[in-house]
Please model this.
Amino acid sequence: MAYKRILTIQDISCLGQCSLTVALPILSACGIETCVLPSAVLSTHTGGFTGYTFRDLTDDMPEILLHWEKEKLSFDGFYTGYLGSKTQIDYVKKIMNSVGNAGNVKIVDPAMADGGKLYPGFDESFAAAMGSLCDEADIILPNITEACLITKTDYKEKYDEEYIDSLLKRLTEKSEKTVILTGVSFEENSTGVMVYENGNKKYYKHEKISKGCHGTGDIFASAFAGSFLKGKDAYTSAVIAADYVVDCIKETIHDEAHWYGAKFEPVLGKLIGRLA
Ligand code: PXL
Model:
């Protein structure tokens, strides 16, 4: 298996076990050279903390790209997560279109919403811009809230397979892409991932742990990207990532003080074992 180089673009939340502080260790542990482009630096993530700092790094992005172009540096894959502004989304498109190796894969996690709501600081026009980034991707990993925002569909807490089918159809209307729809649950005690590729869908159902954890979307996307770049197909990568997230939540739920993220580090060995 070739040694691959990925670029991941998302924020650094100094404390909070999300975005880059999750993506970098997970991708590295998967055996992939992981380059990072921090979109912003926050003292913590925005999901439950108040008074966090936010240093926007948008202005650094074009200069960083210029330098990479001068040095003729390039990447086998891109994986984007939380982005701070529409301008950043435009820069990300430029980066993905100019420093990719032949056959590179573009993975976009439109990390912007959950539970029917946008994260603080985002609005519908940002969601539309994120949708346009998704249309330039090979693989997207939205949850149901994000899929609804991108496709302008009413969000439902309870739904049937027909509703999921219509989301998948709308998500692939403007461009051919693989969709990994997360948090798809048709019954109370289970949840799962719907993988939609070349018009075919395959569902992976797994245990639903009543208490979710913050940052599990980022853990899922990072493990998926790592597995996919290691040569597993999209469905297998989704299964490996979903099982890893369950392990991370089990590691965390009994610790009340650890409400802000999931303890992904103690079970990294299990993830690596699946990739051997
Ligand atoms: O986990 C997604 C995420 C990433 N980065 C920041 C966030 C969030 C979700 O709340 O606030 C800064």
DSSP finds nine helices and eleven strands in the chain. The chain has one domain: 5-270. The first helix runs from residue 20 to 29.
